[in-house]
Amino acid sequence: MKILITGAKGFVGKNMVAALESIRNGKDRSHRINDLASSTEFQIFEYDLDTKPEELERFCSECDFVFHLAGVNRPENSEEFMSGNLGFTSVLLDTLKKYKNTCPVMLSSSMQATLIGRYSESDYGKSKLAGEQLFFKYAKETGAKVLVYRFPNVFGKWCRPNYNSVIATFCSNIANDLPIQINSRDTELEFVYIDDLIEEMLNALNRSEHRCEYAGLDVIKKIDGQYCYVPVTHRATLGEIADTLYSFAKQPETLVMPEMPARSFRKKLYSTYLSYLPKDKMNFPLKMNVDARGSFTELLKTAKCGQFSVNISRPGITKGQHWHHSKWELFIVVSGHGLIQERKIGTDENGREFPIREFEVSGEKIEAVHMLPGYTHNIINLSDTENLVTLMWANEQFDAEYPDTFFEPV
Fold it and tell me: Is 402 among the residues known to form the active site?
């Protein structure tokens, strides 16, 4: 199979090429192309502005599927919308007809093509609508399968800021300590994440695209619909997006990692934000609390699931010797050789102290040990020469006003 991607160096095109190359190279084992016995049996034809015209001829004569992603988003004048979007679309389809190639062709259109509401006077939308009409006419003339997608606002890694994505612009500016401009915080937009879009493109390649019709701006699912759509999208206001991104920017100071449920908009937004970080923000210092015994450093805090820290104990040192009412912890030794001791506080019915529970731990056999509520506990470095390094998780963030920590030797 030979797959032609126009606009291969653009935002969506670059992600599409990377996804297909990962499949072809066997690095992505979660996807395959159904028409192929092996995922490695295909070629990718990349077309962009710097591609020679004769290459387009060859690509169109040989390809088995076309992802038409090329387009103009921010021209110097509005006339370029038609020439850049409709003009090249016409060239592409004429070249396919020239070689009698009726392979499936996908078109990257836009919700602006509805020309509804704030899109009513959109020159970009008008050029996209004209491209859609050309595609449908082409399908009737040739019998070729066309897949017309009206994308909402697309966001994700590699998207160009100050171009056609408000999220890209916000992410880039906030990551680089530049101001952002919001005309109305309450403006709500629909967004599609690049990975969800690429997932649907792979569906289209495997003849399992999602079909629909439109009622205004609303998608109406329909198996034999004229249009196609990405089934996973998100809605958010500009104010919500800005506030969320500013909270991400504060994470190196607060150490608090916000909740990011699987497949949530917040999770996708955080991945996008990180992709715009400049080099000087890719690392940040952590406060090490150092004394003669070693060090203790908070690593990461969460809103609802506690915090992570790392403890370093020097040779022969004992740390801990305390207990908690409700707090509990997990100790995970990742380097060195140590002993964890725990004892239930108080005495049994005979007035005797409860027995000590001991756990010998080592970085050679990594395991997690619970520090139980109501049990005083410690950790001892058994080595005479090597530091003991322990990752610690606590079920709550440390609260200096209510530390829930009480000294008592094991």
Answer: no
Read off the pLDDT of residues 237-260 as tens digits, 9 standing for 90 and up: 999 999 999 999 999 999 999 899
- The average pLDDT across 218-237 equals 97
pLDDT beyond 90 at 375: yes
The tens digit of pLDDT for each residue in 46-57 reads 999 899 999 999
Cα–Cα distance between 228 and 219 in angstroms, integer? 9
User: How many CA atoms lie within 13 Å of 116's alpha carbon, on the beta-carbon side?
Assistant: 8
**Parallel, antiparallel, or unpaired: how do β-strands 211-215 and 307-313 relate?**
unpaired
Distance of CA 39 to the CA centre of its chain: 24
Active-site choice (119, 124, 273, 276): 124
Checking if the pLDDT of 81 tops 60, the result is no
pLDDT tens-digit profile of 322-341? Answer: 999 999 999 999 999 999 99
**CA–CA distances in Å: residue 246 to residues 16, 240, 254:** 29, 10, 12
